Structure to design on (826 residues):
């Protein structure tokens, strides 16, 4: 039997179930060692995060906020905000994740959160929201398993009064176990009992008394034996001082600084607007010398990431605006420049119910501080051979216990000041949770049931096609909403695919899952059941064939191309979502066709998400295809489309200005090889024939010749030859029939003047007499006016002006024509 059965139990829960786990235990019980071993041996892909920089470094991970890029301050998850108000409480501001980070999140099987005692409930719900965004949105934490490591009797989460005012209506307290997402998952709690850090029972007993709030006067007396007044070890003894307050650490560091020979150089912080003293990230007056031991208090914001919060080094050179620091293990000195911190305030807008963030002030200083002493918060997770503990002014729950438990032995411990009863803080909420966890501690039976349930859930997931069906429905709806802008056959193609898929996939899957449920009811591990494995193999063979043929290939043959950019982008998005789900399903079916294995299934499913993204980026076949299905001449279509798109780009006009999509499809369908045949195509008129006719006829003719295509005859409608009608002759015929000029004008819908003009034409042929159009008196008066002025004719407008309103333009035009004919006759 293992010397630590709880460690074995925890490892098996992590490896073989999807249960969220809280791994706890007294200081020195091997929690950190368990994590390091898990990283070496676990087959699940994991990420390790922690609430502080030092804790993250010790765990071999990164900070929670850097990994999930979450905002500092109170976090109100959207799902929780909706329960308070129909409008969103807050617009959480995420930095945009790059593709590498998204792929990393999508590949996760396991998220390890170290030092969970310091993680707030709202932070855990923020993690849930990020994971669901990029993993499985309908499962807590996106279906990622959580391993939470820590000790609730150590450091507790920090919450400002302003933050609590926003969060108090959502959470009873801010301990991690109050997370709404976590409470939906029924986590298991495993406590490690065996203590490794300390070896003597006397020291272990003292630590347990403090941890469990059972400290007595006798315990205090025993503990305070390590109080040594005025203790000043030499530099080579290796003592580090742990304090409760930054000020005490600063005093120790100042004394050490004074021991170094040389002149102190002072760097003063620049403080702008509202930045209260208690929020200063480091000292306002940074006093350093060459040879001083310093620690970085901020992560390197550059791409190089040369330093991190908690990294320690020695000052090697000082300049006006640069401090050079050499860190152990680094090959080069770091040239450190001043950094800026922002004081952020959060307020709840009563009208919008949103948490609003503003920059109240800034603090600019070198991101360094002296490092011969650190606070207890910074020490969590670390182990020291020798330490000077100054916990007499403990202000937070668990600080005394954390500080004392950093030491490997009672003899290596020195108290700078005696510990009093009021220095040991406890919390009834912690005691209640711990008691409940101990009463419901899991065992082998719970482990076995969890393993079975986990494998069964994965098998059900393997043969569940509901997500694909939902994605398919989104595609059909999008096609219906944009029918006029898409290939006309798209909806018919989708409906045909749906009909086949319903019969050969969805209906069969529903029936198979019922059979599978009966087989799994025997409560055995699917991996170890020969009957289940045989059925899974056969089912995978069947679904692989039909999902590939009836869905994947058929969908990839559908064209969502459109002249409308917005429609095209929208359709590509819904189709890519569908193809991704089908691709993932195909990959998981492939890996299980030789038998189901939990780890293989998990890895394949996670890899498939990433593989699809990579393929979609490099393989045009995974994008909405440019060539529609059921098209007789796809090569010709591609050539015509390339010509059309290129000309549109060259002319800087939308593609449909050259030729609409539906016109391209008709060109490929009827194959016109002459200008007359082009005019038969809808969307091509005389102007387009004139502009593009030669090119289009050339492309189509070359294609038909090269591919030996015998095109069907094209019926060209006969163009009726228009017979030009002599409108003057029509008016003359009506005049001969005895109709008056006003009657002719009314019948032909012309003006009287127009009819007079028609008839005037026939004065020249002699077919009509001038007196039929003008009276004798008017003819004589106009002739007399012209003779008087010794002219034979005048411009019509001038003559009209001279003769007055008694003469119409038609009469004057007739008189001038009569005089012209008479003059020519002479």
């Amino acid at each position: 039997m293992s010397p630590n059965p709880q460690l074995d139990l925890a490892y098996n829960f992590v490896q073989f179930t999807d249960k969220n786990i809280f791994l706890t235990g007294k200081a020195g019980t091997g929690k950190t060692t368990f994590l390091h071993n898990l990283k070496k041996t676990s087959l699940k892909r994991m990420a390790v995060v922690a609430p502080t920089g030092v804790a993250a470094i010790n765990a071999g991970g990164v900070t929670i906020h850097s990994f999930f890029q979450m905002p500092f301050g109170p976090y109100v998850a959207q799902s929780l905000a909706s329960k308070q108000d129909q409008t969103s409480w807050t617009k959480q501001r995420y930095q945009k994740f790059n593709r590498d980070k998204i792929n990393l999140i999508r590949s996760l099987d396991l998220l390890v959160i170290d030092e969970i005692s310091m993680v707030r409930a709202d932070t855990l719900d923020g993690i849930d929201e990020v994971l669901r965004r990029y993993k499985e949105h309908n499962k807590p934490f996106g279906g990622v398993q959580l391993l939470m490591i820590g000790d609730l009797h150590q450091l507790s989460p920090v919450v400002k009064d302003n933050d609590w005012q926003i969060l108090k209506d959502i959470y009873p307290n801010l301990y991690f176990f109050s997370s709404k997402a976590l409470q939906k998952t029924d986590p298991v709690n495993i406590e490690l009992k065996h203590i490794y850090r300390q070896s003597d029972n006397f020291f272990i007993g003292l630590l347990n008394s403090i941890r469990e709030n059972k400290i007595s006067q006798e315990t205090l007396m025993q503990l305070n034996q390590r109080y040594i007044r005025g203790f000043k070890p030499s530099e080579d003894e290796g003592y580090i001082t742990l304090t409760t307050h930054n000020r005490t650490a600063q005093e120790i560091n100042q004394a050490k600084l004074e021991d170094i020979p040389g002149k102190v150089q002072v760097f003063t912080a620049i403080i702008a607007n509202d930045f209260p003293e208690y929020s200063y990230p480091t000292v306002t007056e940074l006093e350093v010398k060459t040879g001083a031991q310093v620690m970085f208090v901020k992560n390197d914001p550059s791409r190089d990431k040369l330093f991190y919060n908690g990294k320690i080094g020695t000052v090697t050179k000082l300049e006006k605006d640069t401090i050079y620091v050499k860190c152990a293990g680094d090959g080069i000195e770091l040239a450190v420049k001043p950094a800026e911190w922002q004081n952020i305030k959060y307020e709840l807008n009563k009208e919008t119910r949103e948490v609003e963030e503003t920059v109240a002030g800034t603090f600019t200083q070198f991101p360094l501080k002296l490092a011969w002493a650190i606070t207890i918060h910074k020490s969590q997770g670390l182990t020291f051979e020798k330490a000077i503990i100054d916990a007499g002014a403990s202000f937070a729950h668990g600080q005394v216990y954390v500080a004392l438990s950093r030491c490997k032995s009672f003899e290596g411990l020195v108290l700078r000041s005696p510990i009093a009863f009021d220095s040991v803080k406890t919390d009834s909420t912690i005691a209640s949770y711990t008691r409940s966890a101990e009463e419901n501690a899991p065992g082998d039976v719970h482990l076995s049931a969890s393993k079975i349930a986990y494998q069964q859930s994965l098998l059900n997931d393997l043969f569940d096609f509901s997500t694909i069906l939902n994605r398919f429905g989104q595609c059909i709806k999008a096609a219906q909403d944009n029918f006029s802008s898409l290939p006309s056959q798209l909806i018919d193609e989708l409906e045909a695919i749906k009909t086949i898929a319903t019969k050969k996939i969805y209906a069969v899957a529903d029936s198979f899952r019922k059979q599978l449920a009966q087989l799994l009811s025997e409560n055995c591990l699917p991996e170890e059941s020969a009957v289940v494995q045989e059925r899974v193999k056969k089912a995978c063979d069947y679904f692989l064939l039909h999902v590939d043929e009836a869905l994947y290939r058929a969908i990839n043959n559908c064209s969502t191309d459109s002249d409308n950019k917005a429609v095209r982008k929208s359709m590509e998005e819904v189709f890519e979502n569908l193809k991704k789900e089908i691709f993932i399903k195909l990959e998981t079916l492939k890996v299980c066709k030789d038998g189901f294995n939990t780890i293989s299934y998990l890895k394949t499913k996670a890899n498939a998400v990433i593989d699809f993204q990579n393929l979609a980026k490099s393989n045009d076949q995974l994008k909405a295809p440019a060539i529609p299905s059921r098209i007789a001449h796809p090569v010709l279509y591609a050539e015509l489309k390339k010509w059309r798109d290129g000309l549109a780009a060259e002319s800087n006009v939308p593609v449909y200005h050259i030729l609409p999509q539906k016109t391209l499809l008709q060109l490929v369908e009827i194959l016109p090889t002459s200008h007359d045949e082009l005019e038969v195509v809808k969307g091509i008129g005389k102007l387009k024939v004139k502009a593009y006719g030669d090119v289009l006829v050339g492309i189509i003719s070359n294609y038909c010749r090269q591919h030996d295509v015998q095109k069907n005859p094209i019926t060209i409608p006969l163009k009726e030859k228009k017979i030009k009608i002599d409108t003057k002759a029509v008016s003359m015929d009506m005049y001969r029939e005895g109709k008056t000029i006003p009657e002719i004008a009314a019948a032909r819908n012309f003006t009287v003047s127009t009819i007079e003009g028609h008839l005037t034409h026939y004065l020249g042929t002699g077919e009509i007499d001038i007196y039929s159009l003008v009276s004798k008196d008017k003819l004589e008066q106009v002739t007399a006016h012209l003779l008087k002025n010794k002219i034979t004719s005048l411009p019509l407008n001038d003559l009209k002006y001279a003769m007055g309103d008694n003469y119409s333009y038609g009469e004057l035009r007739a008189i001038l024509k009569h005089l012209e004919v008479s003059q020519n006759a002479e």
User: Anything to note?
Assistant: Residues 490-520 form the longest helix (31 residues).
